Amino acid sequence: MSVAVFHPGTQHSWQTALALQQLEQLEWYATSIFHQPGRWPYRLERIAPEPLAARLRAEFGRFAHPGLDPALVRTGGLAEWFERIANRAGWRLLAQRIDAFGNRRFVAQIAAAISADKPFALWGYNGSSSRPFELAKLHGRTCILDRTIGDFRVFNAAMDGLQDRYGEWFLPSERGYSASHIAADQQEYELADAILVGSEAAAATIRQHAPGQAAKLRVLPYCYDERLFASQPAPQPLRPDEPLRLLFVGQLSPRKGVHHLLEAFAMLPPGAATLTMVGDLRVPRQVFARYADRITYIPQVARHQVPAIMAQHHLLVFPSYFEGSALTLLEALASGLGIIQTRASGNGAGPETGLVLDRIDTPSLHAALLQALDDRDLVNRWRAAAQTAAQGYTFARYRANIAALLAEMGLA
Known about the structure:
alpha/beta; seven-stranded parallel sheet; single chain; 2 domains; 13 strands; 17 helices; transferase; Rossmann fold; glycosyltransferase activity; six-stranded parallel sheet
């Protein structure tokens, strides 16, 4: 049976759609953003003056997926673009409202397709699947929920405790999810025939707070983008005299543990290591400014720039409290980086490629960084093993896992 995929944004949905297309089981792929040079707003990259045109090409290029058949792609709506503009401007609460509005509009646009007479299953993502799944059930469709994050009740509990100790690090938009949001998540769980998550850590959060849905859970590990990361150079051993180059990639927010990373790094001997942080700043600027003179901060960059940045570093440090499974960990493996991460971060470091921290606090992270500083041979072994470990997260492996899932569900 064919499968229709929908996502009002992007995330890894394009890889899901491509895998289904290659399995000859993609009915259609609906998304708000898909690079089509002949359509608005993508035509702007051809008519805008430089350097604006270059910036547009970089931004639009993030949504170019040449392997997907455009005839199977359905797009509509500009809400996703407005949400991105609001986020870039720092208007977080406005961006959240636009996201909610855009999700509702997106669902209305695909309702007719879901109600078609042809039999197919529906593959949707958290935050936008309740209404589509309700419609799908009226037509006897199998519904697959791809939840890209853990259960937000775990997030709320973690952030509640953290705000007591690190309240000044929080923006208003980063404090927690409402009861109505969590109720909508619960409805998606109940409507789904299968609930997919990217890691065992994320699955555990759903078992904890929605035990009645545990039988539906499947762990479907993500893959990295091989167009960008498959040709990364093999890592070279650290020289005895060079500083350890640390990297963080992701939103700079309390959820990601950036306060612990900045505190732990500040405790290291001066000159022993460098720290580069890449991503959207989601902590108050006046708090971040206390540490800014010791680190290199790079705001959001185009996806094609990330491999070169990773190749210039030795260790990815990712002390997150709450994830689905962070793709940046897989990208780091493919780039030959060792990894220091928390267990909640998802798939990434193993015994041969880094450290997984069970405690999330500054002393634990500081101890891990000191271990890496004191044992360069260990770091070199982590890095030497990383690209082999990354082969467990290729697109071919992801596609094979989808094929196995569909066969298990009787949809092959």
